[in-house]
């Protein structure tokens, strides 16, 4: 479970997060919705301890990422907006490298690479060097790295960008199975169909503040608007950020 209370973060004069609070439960996929520049990426980076918050509290299964970043990272998979692939390595070499960094034993790691590769449809790119990979291929490799050590928590920053229809479906299947395993998933996205298809809970942030949290149905009920996209626009008070 991830619990966030009144988190604030400034970059110079820019107040990227001005008071974000929410709870993301285990066995649930929580969408993080917000217009461009709302603070979604900043929030995710703060949750894994890559950024230091100015104020507020964060608890990842009771652990503060600033006090014990290694413990939090062991239990978290984070798909960032920067994939950080090593272009001289093949996909398999890259995954072995990160699996070993996470303390996985080689036999278990080899088996897990096969599983994740089958899940994401990566067989054809497994032995290829990542140099020159398309956007969709790059995101698959990064996603595979994120899933490799079976994290208890998964933070995904726009995971479906650049994915084709088959890969988007594969991602959905992967997320369903992680949810069934009790994983706590937070997914920043601009794609409303993804939210309605996958997420039982939605956090709406705008201007660095939590504007609302609830199921898609609750947000529609609260705004008196039947369609989630229109409800979102009404909550943030702008037409920005709609895919
Ligand atoms: N390193 C940084 N230095 C200065 N300003 C930053 C930095 N990182 C983020 N910001 C600012 O903080 C605000 C929130 O940015 P953030 O990337 O978290 O938004 P986002 O919700 O992820 O946006 P998008 O949907 O466009 O990806 C923006 O105004 C952004 O310009």
From TrEMBL:
Any one GO MF term held by the record is: ATP binding
- TM helices/strands, residue ranges: none
Annotated ABC transporter domain ranges read 2-232
Which keywords belong to this entry?
ATP-binding, Cell membrane, Membrane, Nodulation, Nucleotide-binding, Transport
Pfam families recorded for this chain?
A: ABC_tran
Q: Which family does it belong to?
A: Belongs to the ABC transporter superfamily.
What's the name of the protein? ATP-binding cassette domain-containing protein
Give the originating organism. Massilia hydrophila
Organism phylogeny: Bacteria, Pseudomonadati, Pseudomonadota, Betaproteobacteria, Burkholderiales
């Amino acid at each position: 479970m991830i619990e966030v209370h009144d988190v604030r973060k400034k970059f110079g004069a820019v107040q990227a997060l001005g008071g974000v609070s929410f709870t993301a439960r285990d066995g649930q996929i929580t969408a993080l919705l917000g217009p461009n520049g709302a603070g979604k990426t900043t929030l995710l980076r703060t949750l894994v301890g890559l950024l230091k918050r100015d104020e507020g509290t964060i608890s990842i299964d009771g652990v503060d990422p600033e006090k014990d970043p290694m413990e939090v990272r062991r239990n978290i998979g984070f798909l960032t907006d920067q994939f950080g692939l090593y272009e001289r390595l093949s996909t398999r070499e890259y995954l072995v490298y990160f699996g070993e960094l996470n303390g996985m034993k080689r036999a278990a790691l080899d088996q897990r690479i096969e599983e994740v590769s089958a899940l994401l449809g990566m067989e054809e790119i497994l032995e290829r060097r990542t140099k020159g990979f398309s956007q969709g291929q790059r995101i698959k490799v990064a996603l595979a790295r994120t899933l490799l050590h079976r994290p208890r928590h998964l933070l995904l920053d726009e995971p479906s960008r650049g994915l084709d229809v088959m890969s988007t479906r594969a991602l959905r299947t992967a997320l369903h199975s992680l949810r069934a395993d009790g994983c706590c998933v937070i997914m920043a996205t601009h794609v409303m169909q993804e939210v309605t298809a996958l997420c039982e809970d939605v956090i709406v942030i705008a201007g660095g503040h939590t504007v609302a949290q609830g199921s898609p149905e609750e947000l529609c009920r609260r705004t008196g608007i039947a369609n989630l996209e229109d409800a979102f626009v009404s909550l943030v008070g702008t037409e920005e950020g709609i895919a």
